[in-house]
Amino acid sequence: MTPEETLNWLENHPEIESLRVAVCDLNGTMRGKGIPVTQAKKALAGDIRMPLSITGVDIWGEDIVGSEMVFESGDADGICEWTGRDIVPVNWLAKPTALIPLWLRDEGGAPFLGDPRRALASIVERYASLGLTAVVATELEFYLVDPNADHPAPPKSPLTGKRLESDGVLSIDELDQFEGFISDIYSACAAQNIPADAAIAENGAGQFELNLLHVADPLKAADDAILFKRIVKGLARKHGFAASFMAKPYGDRAGNGLHIHFSLLDSSGNNVFNNETEQGSDTLRHAVGGLLGAMYESALLFAPHLNSYRRTRPGSHAPTGVSWGYENRTAAVRIPGGSHAARRIEHRVAGADANPYLVLAAVLGAALEGIEQRISPPEPVVGDAYAQAAQHLPFDWATAIVAFENGSYMDRIFAPVLRSMLVSCKQQELRVFTGRVTDFEYHSYLETV
Fold first, then answer.
1. What is the pLDDT of residue 124?
2. Which residue of 80, 112, 161, 420 lies most exposed, with the fewest beta carbons within 10 A?
3. In the prediction, which pLDDT does 291 show?
């Protein structure tokens, strides 16, 4: 939409009583303000300001202690620019509301590279300079849980009133029981121009996956994923559930993943991964080489939280090692079969708790490094990749933070300001978690050791 079309849309929807304007922070949380509908023109014209530091707050919304973005710089405001995304109707609140998505520029008008959406945009621009366009799709998993339980518990079926107990993978019956909720998701996605595709019941009790179709615009694909998560959480509450994209809400059930599928088109619309063979082109292999080379140091972006590392365990259907293979779901990078013309790469490492902008920037940036440097990958894994991977991903959060901070690929993919902000954010979160002693630790050690 143009600003004029957006204003016309609002005029044609007089039921909209208020607006939200928001940017996305490094943790994938939307942060912003509520404004009257009469202020829409101001938001679309870039006349709203918010602190640049808002993109770098921790998971609890706290400023980063000692950050140069806060007191050292006077906690300066940035310019909130409209992303150009269609206005987003929000239909699960008490009053009809809509969202205008924004991203940040600094005071001088330059893109603020600490904004995660700007990080992805810079990678998209690098592809464009080579005459290439990334075509991207995402797959997001989530759990519905009982909102009244102190700890995660499967929801009760709207049809039977009984709590789900089994891991009903690909259960049509489970889809049918939650049909009202899933139908509302599709309606909300249609209203927000999100290309929702197949929905399935996944491996865990109350776990679902919904695929978003391929789009030839990585920024839109990441926007769609962020907005989809808000839709699911909002509608879950409306239906009497809670929804969680936490990487591993249950220790003994499957985790939630965010899988990325992508291919590359040249200026004539040809898929450069396709050479009419099952193996794919040299460009595909070089992209895989870059993905594998950057995977260890970019793990923090795929597993950004303490809980994320409970998901990446052997035999858990989540990758634990740096590996690739053809039609192999135990590998971190999978080359799906099917039509040669649709040859693509599936990156399977990220959890659903990750920020889609940073995940896509890391994946596409690493693939581009591989293509530009003509990096050849090792031979693809055949069979169980858990038992064959030459290099493991970081086993813990602290190791991943250090690997990201020191990574040479990360230095070429991300701006220094974003790397500094993300490392400071994650170090602060880690300090908070390590300062807390759990009940299980007291039970195990208090009078035992």
1. 98
2. 161
3. 98
- Which residue in 318, 24, 342 sits closest to 214, CA to CA? 342
Q: What are the residue ranges spanned by the domains of the chain?
A: 3-111, 124-414
Amino acid at 181: F
Distance CA 72, CA 53 (A): 11
Q: How many Cβ atoms sit within 10 Å of the Cβ of residue 280? A: 23
For 34-87, how does the pLDDT look when each residue is reduced to its tens digit (9 = 90+)?
999 999 999 999 999 999 999 999 999 999 998 877 666 667 899 999 999 989
- CA dist 389 and 91 (Å) reads 46
User: Contact 76/67 with Cβ under 8 angstroms?
Assistant: no
Q: What pLDDT is stored for residue 168 in this prediction? A: 61
Residues in the chain where the model's pLDDT stays below 70: 70-74, 166-171, 315
The 3-state DSSP class for residue 71 equals coil
Put simply, whether the predicted model's pTM sits higher than 0.90 gets the answer yes
* CA angle, residues 331, 332, 334, in degrees to nearest 5: 65
What's the fold here for domain 124-414? Creatine Kinase; Chain A, domain 2 (3.30.590)
Report residue 447 as tokens: 């009078």
Give CATH for domain 3-111.
3.10.20.70
DSSP string, 54-68: GGG--TTSPPPTT-T
Alpha-carbon torsion, ordered 355, 353, 424, 411, to 10 deg: -50
